[in-house]
Write a structure and sequence with these properties.
The chain has two helices and five strands, in the order E-H-E-E-E-E-H. It is globular. With about 90 residues, the protein is an alpha+beta fold. It has one domain: 2-Layer Sandwich (Alpha-D-Glucose-1,6-Bisphosphate, Chain A, domain 4).
């Protein structure tokens, strides 16, 4: 129901791996499917899919959830996006 996007200097594959590691550490989620471009996690709070597509030097990361934008899973999804470096010289926060 909710969707968020962010551009990052991180590669798409790395952004997907980070989501698979980071989100279950913040909220009870398990990976139900994953490939090089996306990961889907699910738990009692709902379902979230993170997809990443590289365009030149930047990657567009999209996070979609099955919850309303004020839910716990949406707050954590937005927090994940804020961990991604925007510029190549920026440090990853997570």
């Amino acid at each position: 129901m909710a969707s968020y996007q962010r551009l990052t200097a991180m590669s798409g594959e790395k952004a997907v791996r980070l989501a698979a590691d980071y989100l279950p550490g913040r909220i009870p989620l398990e990976v139900v499917s994953q490939d090089h471009h996306s990961v889907t996690l699910e738990g009692v709070d709902g379902r979230v899919t993170v997809s990443a597509h590289s365009h030149g030097l930047e990657t567009e990361v999209t996070v979609a959830t099955d919850q309303v934008s004020t839910s716990r899973i949406d707050v954590e999804a937005q927090h994940y996006l804020n961990q991604l470096p925007y510029q190549p010289e920026d440090q990853q926060r997570a």
